[in-house]
Amino acid sequence: MARPRPTHVCTECGGESPKWQGQCPHCNAWNSLVETVADKTPARYAGLAEASRVAKLADVDAQEAPRRPTGIAELDRVLGGGLVRGAVVLIGGDPGIGKSTLLLQATAALAQSGAKTLYTSGEESAQQIALRARRLALEAAPLELLAEIQLERILATLEASRPDVAVVDSIQTVYSEALTSAPGSVAQVRECAAQLVRFAKARGTVLLLVGHVTKEGALAGPRVLEHIVDCVLYFEGDTHSSFRMVRAIKNRFGAVNELGVFAMTDRGLRGVGNPSAMFLSQHGEPVPGACVLVTQEGTRPLLVEVQALVDTAHAPNARRLSVGLEQNRLAMLLAVLHRHAGVACFDQDVFVNAVGGVKIDEPAADLAVLLAIVSSLRNRALPDKLVVFGEVGLAGEVRAVQRGQERLREAAKLGFTRAVIPRANAPKTPIAGLEVVAVERIGDAVAAVRE
Ligand code: TYD
Ligand code: MG
Predict the structure, then answer these.
(1) Which stretches of 165-276 are assigned E, i.e. beta strand?
(2) Ligand 1 contact via 95 beta carbon (within 6 Å)
(3) What pLDDT was estimated at residue 42?
(4) Is the pTM of this model over 0.70?
């Protein structure tokens, strides 16, 4: 059979070009042409094709798919209760953060519970995987290993052994014979992922794909990768600390933004059942610039310490830097603070950090960020045992956040005695041991913590 002729398709507009060019001739986008296999379907039969059968929605057998728990509670939480038959899960994260370790632990546990599992690795040899399994005391698991990077052979092996769960570590190392570009290129990643997904859907195999991330921290490869899979999980956390977080960014079978928390130990990743106290740093007594926030991660409230450092700027442009929180939002909040609470930071460098390498993207962190900044600027610690949450708007109002009651209860459970929260989140019945200060404007909040 003749080899299919490669052609080039624009990732922006879908226009085709017979050869690679720097600029798409159709939409003029730069560097958007990628190699793909030419479509082999002869178009001349199109008119003779039979219409496909249409099913009535009510007639489709749509029973709740049984879930296969992975045996790792924190991973199941992120997946929404376990793996669904035929689901494709993409797991991304920085190098060395623990993707291979987690998948090896999960597949070993699945194999032990009777599922047929195949672990395909293009990054490590079977020996290296076996060594790792021994370190993790998993060598007894009936897990099948395959060290292979050629897509056609991987597919043939999958077809022959028909596993219940298959891992491909990583999608960037796999290449298809049909394309001439190098493994890891956009065209290869897209084609290989599409073929593997087709196999998973047709055979009901659960497919776990490992994906690399780019320097900017986004999943490498084309955006279509995220579109064709059912679930995108993302490893977060500082490689210098032992805590790792797995977050669901997309999940067709469960809630997104659910967070699984792990600790990396010398025996692999261990789930952290009650992570609330994990992101609080240990101070003997309250220090200026620290404020504890109750954030909500999926269905779970989490206490995180936000730290701010405000220091006199020595350059004409004062610096605004944030780690784990959104940078642009910080600039906006500083403007609100000046305008509506009369606290000026224009001649100050402002640094903000969320302790423990956690990323917070909900606006409920606003109030905590501002109070930490005020505390650092005045060099006065906030009251002891204080928690804060609330969104701050441009008009200086403190807006309600979701699940206020749950956040307050979690704080009370961990021994916090005071809370500064939005007026609209004030509890109707008092919570034992927690004194609640409900505020309407940012100025009130700043006044409430001045002692
Ligand atoms: P790995 O799973 O290989 O990362 P990825 O596949 O995401 O690139 O993780 C390797 C890191 O984890 C490495 O830095 C060593 C550490 N590690 C432990 O601390 N304990 C262990 O038991 C294992 C297996 C790895
Ligand atoms: Mg790896």
Answers:
(1) 165-169, 206-211, 231-236, 243-251, 259-265, 268-271
(2) yes
(3) 56
(4) yes
